[in-house]
Amino acid sequence: MISWLQGHIQLPGYDVGLWSVEHEEKAAAFLNNPRLCQLLCYMSNGKLHFSATLDTEATSCEKLYYFIRSEEIRLNNIDMSIHHGMLSRGTAMQSLLEAMGQVFGPQLFESSTESTFAASRKTVLYLPSGKFLPSVPTAAKNKELVQQLESIVINWTRQIKGVVNSQDSHYHTEVSGPLEEIEFWCTRKEDLCGILQQLQRADVCRVVCVLEASKSSYLARFLSLARRIHENSVEANDNVNFLKNLVTSCKILASADPARKWRAFLSFGRSFC
Q1: Does pTM top 0.70 for this prediction?
Q2: With contact defined as beta carbons under 8 Å apart, do 235 and 242 qualify?
């Protein structure tokens, strides 16, 4: 089965002769360990590299070839159980997430979604792509579907709770200066507004309606935190509107030499008048 992988990699500069014992060990782990759902291959400085995650080096390469497993792999079903393809830099992460979304359920997909958008400090609420929900009454009577939706909402609840609690963590963290404080609130406002927009999407509201109809016990906590997101968003917006007037003065104060710092400080004080 390793030879199957070797023959399907299509990368500029790739050759089977670049394989080493380490490559074979990683390939064997992917083929035999059900917990390893993906194998990413890329070229760097003329060398072949394998990764199980979308790390910084993998996402910065020009071309990325991926293998995604959807079931137990055997020699007679390898063509059906492994999805594969090549991605280009810039679209690699989103494209890979879309490919994984078509193969896996939320339990395997959510962690990849979070790690992908963590670097941009944006919270993304995962939902499978496509029209996967029937009418609300029909969906609410489908026990298996309700359990899947509950799994999704449990993850949303954990994500939103983390965003809400991050403000408390910020208060206990030493901040370098006023510019860093302003940057925190600008970033927080953007993230909270993004979450609010997602919560108002038709597909998210439809999930909520299904769980309401099925009387899911997991919904109340999620709705409570969703209200907190709205409250926090209003607070963050007010703080940004106030703090943005201080940016220029803060920059002058930060860059002023000691002899002129008092003048800059007076200018900064006038910003509050």
Answers
A1: no
A2: no
- Token duo for residue 165: 């609690």
Strand partners, 38: 68
Residue 273: alpha-carbon gap to chain centroid: 42
DSSP three-state, residue 10: coil
pLDDT by position in tens, the chain (length 273): 788 899 999 999 999 999 999 999 998 888 887 777 788 899 988 999 998 876 667 767 788 888 887 666 666 667 777 878 887 765 545 555 555 544 444 444 444 445 444 445 678 887 765 455 678 898 899 887 888 788 888 888 988 988 888 765 555 555 567 788 888 889 899 999 999 999 999 889 999 999 999 999 999 999 999 999 999 999 999 988 888 877 776 776 667 666 565 565 555 555 555
Contact 254, 239 (CB under 8 A): no
Structure tokens at 176: 């370098």
DSSP calls for 213-247: HTT-TTHHHHHHHHHHHHHHHHHHHHHHHHHGGGH
Sign of CA dihedral 146, 151, 152, 155: positive
The DSSP secondary structure of 52-95, one letter per residue, reads: SS--HHHHHSSEEEEEEE-S---TTTHHHHEEEEEEETTTHHHH
Q: CB burial class (10 A; 0-12, 13-18, 19+) of residue 235?
A: middle
Residue 217 backbone phi and psi in degrees, to 5: -75, -10
